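Morning. Coffee machine broken again, so started the prediction first thing and wrote up yesterday's gels while waiting. Chain of 590 residues, entered below exactly as on the submission form.
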Amino acid sequence: MGLLLLALPLALAVSAFGGFAARRERANADQELVRELDSGASVYSGLLRDARRNAERLASSRRVAEAFAHRDQHALRTIEQADRWVILLPGAKGGLHRPDVEARFSVVHRGRTIGRVFVVPPFGRHLIRTIAGEAGLPEGRLGLLVDHRLVRERGIGRVAARPTAEKPTDLQVQALEYRAVALPLGAQRAAPALVAVRQRSEITAAADDVRRRVIGLGLGLIGALLVTAYGVAPAIARSRLSRLQRDQAERVLAHLGDGVFVVDHDGVVRLWNRAAAAITGLRAAEVRGRPAEEAIPGWRTIATFVPVADQPGQADGPSSSETVPIDVAGRELWLSMVAVSLDDDTVYAFRDATHDRRLEELRSQFVATISHELRTPLASLHGAALTLREHNLPAETQDDLLDMIAEQSNRLANLVEEILVAGQLDAGSLSVVADTFDPEELVRGVATVARSRVVAERRIDVVAPPVLPRVHGDGERTRQVLLNLLDNAIKYSPPGGRIEVRLAVVGDRLRFIVQDQGLGIPVGEQERIFDKFYRLDPDQRRGIGGTGLGLYICRELVRSMHGSIWVESETGKGTTFAFELPAEPLAVPV
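Came back before lunch.
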């Protein structure tokens, strides 16, 4: 029953395809008529071109001129009989008024026109025979339509209506039906036309024959398919189930986020899924079918340190994940990997732990940095407090110690503020006010605060154009960004260095620029300095402290105000930090 249900739509499809093949055969017949007409038209154009050249030659020949001058009708008729395309008429005016005149040339003798040579195609059976022969067309396929008469090699027949120009259409010639396409040979509506024709009965017979052959072949294939399917149906069912299961497994592996690969008992890689290629950058074609030791970088490390479990799910056993490093084209990757034995093969699953490991290293470094940053002010505060409590000091010394306590307390407050702001940014709970503010007033206020923190040999200058727009954003958060950037410039500027804060209008945005003459930032580090916990001098070999959060906070605050921030630097020549915020348009003077 199932096979019959399968055969029915196939039979319908075969019948439809047979109909399509028949229509295609009719369309091919139309195209063949158009090609035959084009071939005939090309030959006719050549004959007409030759006739015009010959007529022009006759009009300038001495023989024709003398025949017109002496009114020698016998000579004129002899010339006309030698060339079917020309008609000779004496006189300077009048002449032929026929739609089939293709060209006319004047015969001039002693400065006056004494006759004319007309080019008139001889639309008759001889012309059709000549065109068909030179074009290599079958007999009867080409004709000339003159008035309502179709002239062909086999004879002349009357047509009921003229066919549409240059478009295949039906044509009735007396009692017979044809498929025809016509090409007018003149601009007039009733001008003769070149016609390619073919009997409709021939076209229909050819189309029916094609349809019968296609349907017969299709039904034969369906019968063979049914017989074969009946014999191998059980095997097909088993194969289909196996294929479905395999396809499902391949789809799952292809869309799995973890990399998966299989190594057989000979150490050859048999499977390498899409995620494995994406994580490592190694294409499946480069790895599959090759020994793992040659195809997978760091394979010895993987085989040594990743335990192979007998079955999955042994989280506390040997199947627990192991993080191992591999080097792919100079790029270090850390992969968290598990392995399970499957028959004679071993299945490895892994994920990219490079970012997690780098983040963990940065966190460890951050804890060490914070410990150091906290220890210094706390030690200063503790020492100053003990000194004030246990000793009777002069008033000047007490003031110095109190100033130090205030300074170190402010340092601790700033440190705690950075940590709190970073935590709020990570949690998405930091509030940013959508308002406008005066950028010049803000920058000059920040510069004043920064000048109080620098020694006399460092300068902080502010450069601003005379007219500035108001800026869309949070003024306090912008102040925090500028203070962070100025603190960095102060830390890394040499004694006597100049720090410049500039404002510039760039389209519909305002650019804040902080430029120093300090140590500069290496090109390879410029993309990473905005990362959380990243510090250019983690070991503090230059004696410059910091938490590694300042520039990260700057970037996130600028982004929260729909702005952008970047750095330009050259080692030993200083650094320029810039960020842009949306601004109100400036009024254009009228």
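The mean pLDDT is 80. Going to sketch it on the whiteboard this afternoon.
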